[in-house]
Specification:
With 255 residues, this protein is an alpha+beta fold. The protein has one domain. Strands 1, 3, 4, 9, 10, 12, 13, 14 and 15 form a 9-stranded mixed beta sheet that branches. Strands 8-7-6-5-2-11 form a 6-stranded antiparallel beta sheet, with helices on both faces. Strand 7 and strand 8 form a beta hairpin. The chain is elongated.
């Protein structure tokens, strides 16, 4: 046997070189997976929520068309992206009353809500809201509750969108269909003239965002005030000379 062959280290060098190169490649893949994968997943989730935010803006437009323009029905299709979409007619509550006097309106708002990994987007009370896992809530699009000067009179407008229908929910990676229809309201348009405070109380999972909305429409230099109450409640006290309250009932079905 050739002694030079027995002493040769070229074969060993090739094996060691392969192991080193393979180890470096596997280490690089591991680092990319450990560092890059969560970033990719976070980016995908943010993109999904951005798409859902846009879907809820379209949904708000559809509901306004059915409620105010008397369209018979509107349908929206949206990708679920691994989350769940739920219609719950028992969520949220609003009360409109004259201070130290009678209640003008009291009823459930109902909500259409998308949720994934503790983050949610919802249509409630005519507005679109978003809530993060830490609990912070923001307003994406405002409800039809505002204060306006009409012919010298300070007028408070409260258009209540009441989401009705059976509780329904869909989830997964497929596409959801959201159908909205108008239903008759038992509460007629009510216009009241008085010089007094009107108190609007909203109980909602998005109470912080509702509070910021009320802060944005009132006169903080006057007698108006917004108070954050217990149990996800916010109270807005607004001086007015005319109060306009109307209700629109919308039946919603998701599948």
């Amino acid at each position: 046997m050739d002694k030079k062959f027995l002493k040769s280290e070229s074969a060993v060098s090739e094996v060691v070189g392969f192991i080193l190169v393979f180890s470096i490649i596997m280490l690089a893949i591991g680092v990319i997976y450990a560092v890059g994968y969560p970033t990719i997943q976070s980016s995908k989730e943010n993109t999904q929520f951005q798409n859902m935010e846009q879907s809820f803006m379209v949904l708000q437009s559809n509901i306004n068309t059915v409620a105010f323009d008397h369209a018979p029905v509107k349908t929206l299709k949206t990708s679920l992206g691994g989350g769940s979409l739920t219609v719950n007619s028992s969520k949220g509550h609003i009360t409109v009353e004259r201070q130290n006097a009678e209640i003008r309106y009291s009823g459930t708002l109902g909500a259409i809500e998308y949720e994934k990994n503790g983050r949610s987007v919802a249509y409630e009370g005519g507005g679109v809201w978003e809530k993060y896992p830490a609990g912070a809530a923001i307003k994406l699009s405002e409800p039809r509750i505002f204060v306006q000067d009409v012919d010298g009179n300070r007028t408070v407008f409260v258009s209540i969108i009441n989401i009705s229908g059976e509780m329904s929910s869909v989830g997964g990676d497929g596409t959801a269909s959201v159908v909205v229809r108008s239903k008759p309201s038992t509460y007629p348009l009510n216009i009241t003239y008085f010089y007094d405070n009107v108190i609007i109380t909203v109980k909602s999972d998005y109470a912080d965002a509702w509070g910021r909305h009320f802060n944005g429409i009132i006169d903080l230099t006057g007698t108006d005030e917004v108070v954050r109450g217990p149990d996800d409640e916010v109270n807005a006290t607004i001086w007015c000379e005319t109060l306009v309250v109307n209700e629109h009932v919308i039946e919603v079905e998701v599948s």
